[in-house]
Automatic annotation (TrEMBL):
One of its GO terms (molecular function) is ATP binding. Gene3D superfamilies: Transferase(Phosphotransferase) domain 1. InterPro entries: Kinase-like_dom_sf, Prot_kinase_dom. The chain crosses the membrane at residues 26-47, 77-99, 106-129, 141-166. It comes from Pleurostoma richardsiae. The keyword S-adenosyl-L-methionine does not apply. Residues 149-425 form the Protein kinase domain. This is Protein kinase domain-containing protein.
């Protein structure tokens, strides 16, 4: 196979496994895997020690005619047969699930082999402890059988874990030097180039239907790539406030949660140095569109907003930033002079936070009375006044643009609140 074709094949297999693990495996398979693991545990741990204790019990033998039928019953019931049926049935079920999902090593490790390995190890240790404590070192047929079965299960499941873990590592292991990738191709795969490529495509797509030629001129080129934690972000635009970013996908991370609330769109998957990235775009939303959503502000929302604002201003003062060090596309103004601050949401696994969409918008909402400040209670007004970095009256009068804090400076706290570790120097 051609090295480049093998490279694409490895990437597609790894991505297929992640997507299948998130979207295509039904809940029934997960439920059956847990049931089979429990039945296996019950088969070789619970029943044999119980029947061994009953066989050695002196209570039943000392109760005379009443205890004899019970003891006779337990001696006749083939309890090892029942335990064997449970073990064999669960093993057959697990083998069936393995055959059905044999191409998805992530799911097999998480739902089959690792649980079985843990249960078998616990069973092995429990049986040894039971023999040398409760039975004074006496090895019965049931104890020997339990030890043999649990030891075999430990070896088998442990071997399977190692094999599938190595298989997963091979899928993730990509060595560019062995694939004969040219320097130009390697440069094209850098995250910065990927972001620039997607930004160019999106700009072209968005302006093909635009009738205003001068609007295209108002968009700036991608000026910088901001590095923040696990994300690479490319911000562009002056009136639309779009943003494209790369989010690294960890093993088992749910790709279906990348798109939420029509705020983030998944543009595609990308591999760089063995790490899968998701290329996403924040959909353009104006402040008016977001604020038009009927939503009652709660104290926890405003507390989060005030904290972000305060952290952003502290970051400005600590680093001595000026307007010359900030991208001019971060803030726009309407014809009425209302500041439009770029909104960058936070990718939160499990869904969006209620207060995320309100973070950089609180000043605009209070100034324009969108949230109905005239109907706020005295307690709410007092809360805002004491938790914000300014008074409510100053916020309503839009005085946050005074006292040396320009509109471009104010935009920094939006980036800082989202990316946490961005370097704007």
């Amino acid at each position: 196979m051609d090295p480049r074709a093998r490279y694409r094949h490895q990437i597609s297999d790894y991505v297929r496994i992640l997507v299948e693990n998130d979207k295509d495996i039904p809940f029934l398979d997960v439920f059956l895997a847990k049931i089979y693991c429990w039945l296996l545990l019950a088969g070789y741990i619970t029943l044999p020690p119980v029947i061994t204790s009953l066989h050695r019990s002196k209570v039943l033998t000392q109760v005379g005619s009443i205890g004899e039928p019970a003891l006779h019953l337990f001696q006749k019931v083939p309890i090892l047969v029942i335990a064997s049926v449970l073990c064999l049935g669960s093993i057959v079920g697990l083998v069936r699930l393995w055959f059905k999902r044999r191409r998805n090593c992530v799911w097999l490790l998480n739902h089959v082999f690792l649980p079985v390995l843990g249960n078998c190890t616990v069973g092995f240790i429990t049986t040894l402890t039971n023999v040398y404590t409760a039975h004074n070192g006496t090895w019965s047929v049931a104890s020997v059988t339990t030890i043999a079965v649990s030891a075999a299960a430990v070896v088998a499941s442990g071997t399977a874990c190692v094999v599938y873990w190595l298989q997963l590592e091979r899928l993730r292991e990509i060595i560019p030097s062995s694939l004969s990738i040219s320097p130009r191709e390697a440069a094209e795969r850098k995250p910065e180039r990927v972001l620039e490529k997607h930004v160019r495509v999106l700009k072209k797509r968005k302006f093909q239907s635009s009738t205003e030629k001068e609007e295209k001129d108002s968009y700036a080129e991608v000026a910088t790539v901001l590095r923040g934690g696990r994300r690479l972000v490319a911000a562009y635009g002056q009136t639309g406030h779009q943003c494209v970013f790369l989010a690294k996908l960890d093993d088992g991370e749910n790709t279906t949660q990348l798109e939420h609330d029509h705020i983030v769109q998944l543009l595609g998957l990308y591999d760089h140095e063995g790490q899968v990235h998701a290329v996403l775009e924040f959909t353009p939303r104006t402040l008016e569109q977001i604020c038009a959503i009927p939503r009652r502000l709660k104290e926890r929302h405003i507390a989060t907003i005030s904290k972000h604002v305060g952290q952003g201003l502290e970051y400005l003062l600590a680093n001595g930033l000026t307007t010359k060090t900030l991208p001019p596309s971060a803030v726009g103004f309407t014809s009425e002079g209302v500041a439009k601050i770029m909104y960058l949401g936070v990718f939160v696994k499990g869904g969006p936070n209620d207060s995320a969409a309100l973070g950089p918008l609180i000043q605009y909402m209070m100034r324009s009375n969108v949230s109905g400040s005239e109907s706020w209670s005295a307690q709410m007004t007092h809360f805002i006044t004491n938790t914000s970095f300014m008074s409510l009256a100053e916020a309503l009068q839009c005085k946050f643009l005074s006292n040396g804090c320009s509109s471009a400076d104010l935009a920094v706290f939006v980036f800082h609140a989202v990316l946490k570790t961005c370097d704007f120097k």
